[in-house]
C-alpha cells in the first residue's frame, strides 16, 4: 500500500501517463488486507456485505476525485504543485492540521508494522501447518506457536533496518506488485474451487447471524470491526497526490488522475467483491480471518501464496518503517548534534572495493529498539482482524474523508452554508459514524481476545 510512497516522492520527472498512474495506484491499494475480505463479508451477511464493499468504493472514488483538484493550489490546473498529501494539508489547512495529519500518518505506519508482524507469523505458521497436514494427514496434531516466527521476522527486520535507503530501491515496488497480485489471485482461485466442490452457497442474509441462531454481542462487535477492515482495503487517498506528482503536465494532471482513480477503484471493487463473496459462499460463517489459512490442499499452491505474503511483507515493513526511523533520528540529531552517538562510522566489507555500510550508534540502537518494541507489542496483541479494523477506522475518516473534503472546500472556495457545503459535511459526518462504530468493534474484539488469551502465549 505504501510501497511507492517514498520512491515516488523522491523523483519529480513528470513523465507519468494514465497507465503508469493506474499501475502505481493498483500497487498502492492491493495489500494483505484483501485476505480478510471474505471474513468481513461474512460478518455483515449477504445483504450488507456486498453493499458495504460497493458503497466504500463509491465514497473512495468520489473523495479521490475531489482530492485530485488539490494537487495544485490555488488553481487546480496551473497552480503551484503540492508534492505530497501532507504538503497539501499544510498549504490549504495550515500548520495545526499538518501536525495532526502527521501524527495520524505516523501512528498508522507503526500500527501497520504491528499488523505486518502478526500477518507474517500467521503466513509462516500456515506454511508449516499445511506441509504437516500433507505429510501426516488431516487428523495429525499440527499446532504451531506464533512467538518463534514473530521473533524470526523481527530479527530479519532489525538487519534490514540498517540497510541505507532501502525505501528508495525500485525493485521493492516491483516485488510488491508481483507478490500481492500472486497471493490475491491464488486466494480467489482456491475459494472458487472450494465453492464449485461444495455445490451450494453458504452464508446467511442478515448481519451477525449464524444459521438460525440469534446474533450474540460478540458477533455484532465483529460486524462493526468488519467495516474497518473493508475501509482499510480501500486506503488510497493518502497516496493519491504522490502518484499524481509523477504525471506529465499535459493533459492536466487532475483530469488524468481522476480517470486513473475511476479505473483503479472500479477494478479493485470488482476484485474485492469477487473474492469477498466467493470466499463467503465457499466457507459460510466459518470463514477464517485470513482466508488462506482455511486451505491445506493443494499444499504447494497454498504454500506459494503464503510465501508470497511473507516476501511482500518483509519489504513492505521497511517501506513503512523508514519514515518513522527518519523522524526519530532527525529529532535526536537536532536535539544533540554534537553527541558521539551521531558520528558516522563506515564498515567496509571484505573482498569488495565498493561495498561499505555507513551507520551511527544512534541509528543502530534506535532502530533496533524500535523493531524489538514493535515485535513485542505484536506478540502481546496478535489479533489479525482487530488490528486491520482498528487501522482502517483510524485512517478512514480523518485521512480519507475529513482532510480531503476540508481541503477541497478551501480549494474550490465553497461558501459555508451552501447546499454543496452541507452535502460534503453530511458525507463527512456519516463516515465519522462509520469510523467510530468500527473502532469500537475493533477495541471490543481485542478486549474479548484478552479475556481468553495469555500474553506472549500465541497459538496460531
Automatic annotation (TrEMBL):
Any Pfam family hit: Aa_trans
Domain (Amino acid transporter transmembrane) ranges: 17-447
Transmembrane segments: 12-37, 43-64, 169-193, 262-283, 299-320, 364-384, 390-410, 422-447
A GO-annotated cellular component: endomembrane system
InterPro entries, alphabetized: AA_transpt_TM (IPR013057)
Cell location: Endomembrane system
Single annotated GO MF: symporter activity
One Gene Ontology term from the biological process aspect of the record: auxin-activated signaling pathway
UniProt keyword annotations, A-Z: Amino-acid transport, Auxin signaling pathway, Membrane, Symport, Transmembrane, Transmembrane helix, Transport
Membrane topology annotation: Multi-pass membrane protein
PANTHER family linked: OS05G0424000 PROTEIN-RELATED
Family stated for the protein in its record: Belongs to the amino acid/polyamine transporter 2 family. Amino acid/auxin permease (AAAP) (TC 2.A.18.1) subfamily.
Record function comment: Carrier protein involved in proton-driven auxin influx. Mediates the formation of auxin gradient from developing leaves (site of auxin biosynthesis) to tips by contributing to the loading of auxin in vascular tissues and facilitating acropetal (base to tip) auxin transport within inner tissues of the root apex, and basipetal (tip to base) auxin transport within outer tissues of the root apex. May be involved in lateral roots and nodules formation.
Protein name as catalogued: Amino acid transporter transmembrane domain-containing protein
Organism this protein belongs to: Salix brachista
Amino acid at each position: 500500500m505504501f510501497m511507492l510512497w517514498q520512491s515516488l516522492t523522491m523523483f519529480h520527472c513528470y513523465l507519468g501517463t494514465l497507465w503508469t498512474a493506474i499501475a502505481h495506484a493498483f500497487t498502492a491499494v492491493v495489500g494483505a488486507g484483501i485476505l480478510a475480505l471474505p471474513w468481513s463479508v461474512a460478518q455483515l451477511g449477504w445483504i450488507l456485505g456486498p453493499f458495504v464493499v460497493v458503497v466504500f468504493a463509491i465514497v473512495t472514488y468520489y473523495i479521490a476525485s475531489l482530492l485530485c483538484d488539490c494537487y495544485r493550489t490555488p488553481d487546480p490546473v496551473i497552480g503551484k504543485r503540492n508534492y505530497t498529501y501532507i504538503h497539501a494539508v499544510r498549504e490549504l489547512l495550515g500548520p495545526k492540521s499538518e501536525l495532526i495529519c502527521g501524527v495520524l500518518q505516523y501512528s498508522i505506519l507503526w500500527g501497520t508494522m504491528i499488523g505486518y508482524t502478526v500477518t507474517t507469523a500467521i503466513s509462516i505458521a500456515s506454511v508449516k501447518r499445511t506441509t504437516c497436514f500433507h505429510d501426516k494427514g488431516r487428523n495429525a496434531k499440527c499446532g504451531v506457536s506464533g512467538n518463534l516466527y514473530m521473533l524470526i521476522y523481527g530479527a530479519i527486520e532489525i538487519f534490514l533496518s540498517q540497510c541505507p535507503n532501502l525505501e528508495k530501491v525500485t525493485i521493492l515496488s516491483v516485488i510488491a506488485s508481483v507478490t500481492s497480485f500472486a497471493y490475491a489471485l491464488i486466494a480467489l482461485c482456491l475459494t472458487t474451487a472450494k465453492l464449485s466442490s461444495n455445490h451450494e452457497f453458504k452464508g446467511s442474509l442478515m448481519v451477525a447471524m449464524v444459521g438460525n441462531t440469534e446474533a450474540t454481542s460478540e458477533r455484532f462487535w465483529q460486524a462493526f470491526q468488519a467495516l474497518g477492515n473493508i475501509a482499510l482495503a480501500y486506503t488510497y487517498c493518502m497516496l493519491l497526490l504522490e502518484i499524481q506528482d509523477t504525471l506529465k503536465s499535459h493533459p492536466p494532471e487532475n483530469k488524468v488522475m481522476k480517470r486513473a482513480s475511476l479505473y483503479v477503484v472500479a477494478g479493485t471493487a470488482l476484485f474485492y467483491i469477487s473474492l469477498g463473496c466467493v470466499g463467503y459462499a465457499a466457507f459460510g460463517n466459518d470463514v477464517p480471518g485470513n482466508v488462506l489459512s482455511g486451505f491445506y490442499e493443494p499444499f504447494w499452491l497454498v504454500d506459494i501464496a503464503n510465501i508470497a505474503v511473507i516476501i511482500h511483507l518483509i519489504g513492505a515493513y521497511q517501506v513503512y518503517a523508514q519514515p518513522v526511523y527518519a523522524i526519530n533520528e532527525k529529532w535526536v540529531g537536532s536535539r544533540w548534534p554534537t553527541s558521539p552517538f551521531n558520528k558516522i562510522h563506515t564498515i567496509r566489507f571484505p573482498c569488495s572495493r565498493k561495498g561499505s555500510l555507513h551507520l551511527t550508534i544512534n541509528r543502530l540502537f534506535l532502530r533496533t529498539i524500535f523493531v524489538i518494541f514493535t515485535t513485542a507489542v505484536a506478540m502481546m496483541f496478535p489479533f489479525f482482524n482487530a488490528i486491520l479494523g482498528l487501522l482502517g477506522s483510524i485512517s478512514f475518516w480523518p485521512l480519507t474523508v475529513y482532510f480531503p473534503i476540508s481541503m477541497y472546500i478551501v480549494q474550490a472556495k465553497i461558501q459555508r452554508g451552501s447546499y454543496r457545503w452541507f452535502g460534503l459535511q453530511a458525507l463527512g459526518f456519516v463516515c465519522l459514524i462509520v469510523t467510530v462504530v468500527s473502532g469500537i468493534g475493533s477495541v471490543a474484539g481485542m478486549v474479548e481476545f484478552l479475556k481468553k488469551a495469555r500474553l506472549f502465549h500465541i497459538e496460531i
